């Protein structure tokens, strides 16, 4: 990690309804009036976007609101906005345009549209402890069927909603969706692996690293897509096709760092 360039797919999750705390920040800032605002999540697995159930932010992180053009505003870390402004995502190349800032904590409870997700009425922004400020955009879209980190973070939120200051109805109704079938772990790769490796908490970092590696390999080399217009294709084939479908719909773009 952190060595050499990394190519991500950046997914645009449009804000449908701010949390009350975020709404106050937005209302106080005239530069944001009438804009389309997106939380931008960096992923290595665009083919899993059918299984999005929520979006994660770090509650201790600060997020910027960056103008991309006259209409669109991205929510991400300053670090990501600096990178993006050299990749065509700012009004002036090489310069970012920051309109405001908002704390991760305030974003929790915001409802966003997750492209391709089966939850078409939107999904919620939730807290995750392991979101790094030094990677991607600081926003992680969550696919608990196929990501052990996402699955364990959600299990912890279900166990301790008060501790995390989340409403159970932001979490519980959004069950993992079967989207990829694998010979070894079936259609719920991440939950199956976490169970097999006896992972009990998002703090079991060593076992989670192993689960991630196994899930990634099994999914990529042996997985079959179960949903969408590339249903029946191998993940190896479908990955680039699904990414292109997201890009063509203007729901995603390539982001390098
Ligand atoms: B992946 P790499 Cl289904 N902090 O997307 C922590 N994790 C982050 C992050 C950050 N700032 N930014 C991105 N990520 C996550 C999907 C997925 C991902 C699946 C399975 C595995 C998986 C849905 N979440 O990642 O260190 C994002 O989660 C396993 C590594 O740059 C992103 O892809 O390799 C991945 O980590 C990027 O991690």
Short description:
Helices cover 31% and strands 24% of the residues.
Provide an overview of this structure.
With 257 residues, the protein is of the alpha+beta class. The protein has one domain (7-177, 229-256): Isoleucyl-tRNA Synthetase, domain 2 (Alpha-Beta Complex), CATH 3.90.740. It has nine helices and twelve strands. It has helices spanning 20-27, 78-84, 104-107, 148-159, 161-164, 168-171, 189-196, 205-222, 235-248; strands at residues 7-17, 36-43, 54-57, 62-67, 72-76, 98-103, 111-113, 123-127, 139-142, 180-181, 224-225, 252-256. The strands form two sheets. Strands 1, 2, 3, 4, 5, 6, 7, 8, 9 and 12 form a ten-stranded mixed β-sheet that branches. The chain has a two-stranded antiparallel sheet with strand order 10-11. The radius of gyration is 18 Å and the shape is globular. The chain starts with 6 loop residues before the first strand and ends with a strand.
- Total helices: the number is 9
Largest sheet: 10 strands, mixed
Content of β-strand: 15-25%
From the alpha carbons, calculate the radius of gyration and give it in angstroms. 18 Å
What is the global morphology? globular
Secondary structure: helix percent: 25-40%
How many beta-strand elements?
12
Second rung of CATH, namely the architecture: Alpha-Beta Complex
Q: Give the integer mean of the pLDDT values.
A: 97
CATH superfamily: Valyl/Leucyl/Isoleucyl-tRNA synthetase, editing domain
Tell me the name of the CATH class: Alpha Beta
H and E order = EHEEEEHEHEEEHHHEHHEHE
């Amino acid at each position: 990690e952190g060595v050499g360039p990394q190519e991500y797919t950046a997914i645009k999750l449009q804000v449908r309804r701010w949390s009350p705390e975020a709404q106050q920040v937005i209302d106080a800032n005239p530069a944001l009036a009438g804009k389309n605002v997106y939380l931008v999540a960096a992923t290595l697995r665009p083919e899993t976007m059918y299984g999005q159930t929520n979006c994660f932010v770090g509650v201790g992180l600060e997020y910027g609101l960056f103008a991309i053009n006259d209409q669109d505003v991205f929510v991400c870390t300053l670090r990501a906005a600096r990178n993006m402004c050299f990749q065509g995502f700012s009004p002036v190349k090489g310069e970012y345009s920051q309109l405001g800032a908002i704390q991760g904590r305030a974003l929790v409870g915001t409802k966003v549209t997750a492209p391709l997700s089966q939850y078409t009425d939107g999904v919620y922004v939730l807290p995750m402890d392991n979101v790094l400020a030094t990677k991607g955009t600081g926003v992680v879209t969550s696919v608990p069927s196929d990501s052990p980190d996402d699955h364990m973070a959600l299990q912890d939120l279900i166990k301790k909603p008060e501790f995390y200051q989340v409403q159970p109805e932001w979490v519980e109704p959004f069950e993992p969706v079967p989207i990829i079938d694998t010979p070894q772990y079936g259609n719920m790769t991440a939950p199956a692996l976490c169970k097999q490796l006896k992972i009990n908490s998002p703090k079991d970092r060593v076992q989670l690293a192993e689960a991630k590696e196994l899930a990634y390999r099994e999914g990529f080399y042996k997985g079959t897509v179960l949903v969408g217009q590339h249903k029946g294709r191998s993940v190896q084939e479908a990955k680039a096709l699904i990414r292109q479908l997201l890009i063509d719909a203007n729901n995603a773009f390539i982001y390098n760092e």
